Amino acid sequence: MSASADSHRLTLVAAPAGYGKSTFLGDWVRNCDLPCAWLSLDRFDTEPARLFHGVVGAIQRAASTLPLPGSDALLALDQGLAHDRAASYDLLLRALEELTEPIVLVIDDVHLAGPGLANGIVGVLAASAPPSLRLVLSGRGHTSIQLERFRYGEGLGELRAPELAFTQEEVAQFAWSLGQDAAFDAGSLWTMTAGWPVAVHASIVALAQSGNVPVTTAPGTTAKHVPLADYVAEEILDQLEPSLAEFILRATTCDWLGRRLAVELYGRPHGGVLLEECIRNGLFIEEHDYRGGESMYRWHSLFAAQCRRILERRDPLLAERLHRVAARYYQDADVVECATQALQGRAPRQAVMSLGAHWLDFLLGNDAQTLERLCRDLPTPWSEDPEILMIRSVCRELAGDSAAASELTDRALSRTFVLDALRRRRLEGCRAHFESTPGIGRTDHHAAPAETGRPSRDVPANGHSAAGASGLFLLAQAEFRLHRTGELAAALLQTAGGTGAPEQLEGIEICAQADLALAFGGAGDLVHASEHATRAVERGDALGWSSQERMAPAWLARGIACYWNDNLTAAQTYLAKTQRLGSDLFPSGPLSVIYRVLTDCATGDPARLAESGSVLETFHARGLYSVSWNALHTIALAKVAEAQGDLDGALAIAQPLGAGGHGALVDTLLAELLRRGGEITAAQRCTESLAHRRANSYVDTCASLTEALVAHGTGDTAAAHERIEHAVHRAEPGSVLRPFAERREELAELLVQHAVWGTAHESFIAALMARDSQGDARLRTQSYWSLTEREREVLAYMRSIMTAAEIAEALYISVNTVKTHERSIYRKLGAGSRRDALKTAAKRGIV
After folding, report:
1. CA-CA distance, 491 to 753, in Å (whole number)?
2. Contact between 370 and 549 (Cβ < 8 Å)
3. Is the pLDDT reported for residue 187 higher than 80?
4. What is the pLDDT of residues 683-722, one digit of tens each?
5. In this predicted structure, what is the pLDDT of residue 633?
6. Segment 382-395 mean pLDDT
7. Less crowded by CB within 10 Å, the N or C end of the chain?
8. Is the pLDDT of residue 512 over 80?
9. Bridging pattern class, strands 455-456 and 448-449
10. Torsion sign over Cα 763, 768, 772, 775
11. Count of other CB atoms within 10 angstroms of residue 511
């Protein structure tokens, strides 16, 4: 605040009621080095004469308490407003111009002065006062004084709700000052209140009075126990125009709403206008990204909860009716919101209709646990509705609980007599999802790679209907939750995506393609992973899905591909996008966390590594996964320790994993860690455990390189070269570069020897050596820098047995250009042949 007053002629402090504006400014005035005048406005200050009297009186009191040079004219002013208002304003401005030191005028509660504020003395001072007057305006919302000229001209100081809100640390300090102990859950209270100071205070006081009951809020619940309803009614709603207050009470039926819903809840056409007025006046609402072509607005959840309490007390029948209005609005757009609103409006049948019609759409983009919870929350007898029972059966089957699924199916079929024809057909369709995919929920599937290297699997051929496609899709997601290598999931998704009616099943196809990209990424087919991810994102963008959770698998597939391609910057970008879009549930949860750790370990950035390690531990603490996740978590912790230079610590962390027998990714990373730690026998057993899981290109590449280095260390040259040749054979088609980059120092000399030994992949090995020579800053000398970028690249390729024509083909340049670069290299190194050039370069530390 002090910095703002020093550098700006006008500062605006604007926030809703309860943010402590007056308290804050009062403390600042008492501690300010400048003389400060204070004026608090009320509703009677809409009169120009009264406002002028208050402004002049406040300035004169400040000037007389701390005499200012040049204040004589100011103190001699008449506080009364003359008949000629302009003359009085001019006299005040001239008196202020005579001041030789600045004075601050704080005007509190400017919103009470009404729309005439801009045309009175305050508007004149804001527009024309000399720099000696620093004006601070404090109020609840939009002021009638035009501020854009200041923002884009001389500058405007602004402090708003985000700056005035408590941080989590401040909530903890405040709670301690009010008698709470160190065990107080400040994080939950801060999340619930969003730092709204009056709400924080009320919550802590209520907590003390209720005997220290912990403050906790479950996701999706409202904090109705916070005693704020009377405050909101008296200090906020009663201070507004009646029409605006009524709109707020109706519109806060939902935490989220758009213009159309605002109009429906208000029941009058100008509901959208009042929504904009709430935005302008900072009334606990903010605009968010577009959804379905319409701006969405979000109320402060705690404020909205208090408004709902007020309306329930004043008119409970109206409150219920508005919940039913909101449920109808969301019936085809948001199953969760529809069900929530319908139950609050005592209309469970509406929730059942929405779930029955749209459960599959919801399941494609979300998770079975949430869907099952929605069904269980329905009151009796609606919880026993046949459609609801069948949906719960689907959820149980996806969770692997076949016994419960069968029991629920039997109960559903025994009650079909209560359904009409349409709902009976829907229930039969629900059954068809799983009749066309036998074995869902079971774990006895085995997939084998086709000759082309792409996943292959005999899957049901009747996947050309909506039921068949959806069932295959859901079965593939069940495979994901088992953390398989991806072959079966890819085969199922290929069938699900290849339906014969794309105009009816586009949503299923896009979701299938996004998950298919992830399946290919998990199966090691990085080329097809990138291709399908790109197509899924493009098709999703066309439908406005770019910021939806259903696109998270596609972004994750891109991140995995970029990591193994050693494009770490792109991998970080795509993984960050995945974590922004995805939930903690698969597929966007565990793998994105693990690959974020691996990517940050590869970059070696301490700050990023600390952050990703924190995310890893936070995810692990939620306990969403058991056996397979525990192994991933352990190896990720070991990789973090290794990246921090603590190899012994990494080995100690990985010790519970033994010598393999876990998921393919875990065993791949574990084998290399054991080799580096000198535990050669354990490393060999670990690579042997991968024998039947090497269809994955990066798994096979990593394991083969580990085996090559083990063989090299034991002096078995032939085995080392055979393993390297196999590794480059598997790595080249998909540009699997990360395993080579991770072992760069140990492989550098071995790759040179292998090029001389003989290889069918000269171009790929030469490219690897070129990347290594460019990437190692320690080997650069003055002679190195005398070669151009292209000459250094050609020199790296010259280390192989490739001809000039083959080098030209690899670099996409002409043979003549290659020969020109070679002559330049010979000249700069003083060499007469390729062998001499390489010898000289080696002696000088260039290669």
Report:
1. 41
2. no
3. yes
4. 999 999 888 888 889 999 999 999 999 999 999 988 999 9
5. 87
6. 89
7. N
8. no
9. antiparallel
10. positive
11. 28
SS3 256: strand
Question: pLDDT band for position 504 (50/70/90)?
Answer: very low
Cα–Cα distance measured from residue 52 to residue 35, given in angstroms and rounded to the nearest whole number: 20
Q: Which residues contact 365 (CB under 8 A, 6 or more apart)?
A: 511, 548, 549, 550
Q: Hunting for tokens 């002559």 — which residue is that? A: 823
Spatial distance between the Cα atoms of 269 and 847, rounded to a whole number of angstroms: 76
Beta bridge partners of 299: 285
- Within 10 angstroms of residue 797's Cβ, the number of other Cβ atoms is 25
Please tell me the distance from the alpha carbon of residue 605 to that of residue 342, in angstroms, as a whole number: 50
Lowest mean pLDDT among 43-52, 530-539, 581-590: 581-590
Q: What are phi and psi of 257, to 5 degrees?
A: -160, 160
Q: Check pLDDT > 90 for residue 542.
A: no
The DSSP output letter for 233 is I
Residue identified by tokens 């939009």 is 142
3-state per-residue secondary structure call for 629-658: HHHHHHHHHHHHHHHCCCHHHHHHHHHHHC
Q: What is the 3-state secondary structure (H, E, C) of 67-111?
A: CCCCCHHHHCCCCCCCCCHHHHHHHHHHHHHCCCCCEEEEEECHH
Rounded CA separation 150/92 (Å): 22
Residue 292 has pLDDT above 60, yes or no: no
Does residue 226 contact residue 203 with C-beta atoms inside 8 Å?
A: yes
Global pTM reads 0.56
Tell me whether strands 133-139 and 285-291 are parallel, antiparallel or unpaired.
Answer: unpaired
- Distance from C-alpha of 509 to C-alpha of 657, rounded to nearest angstrom: 39
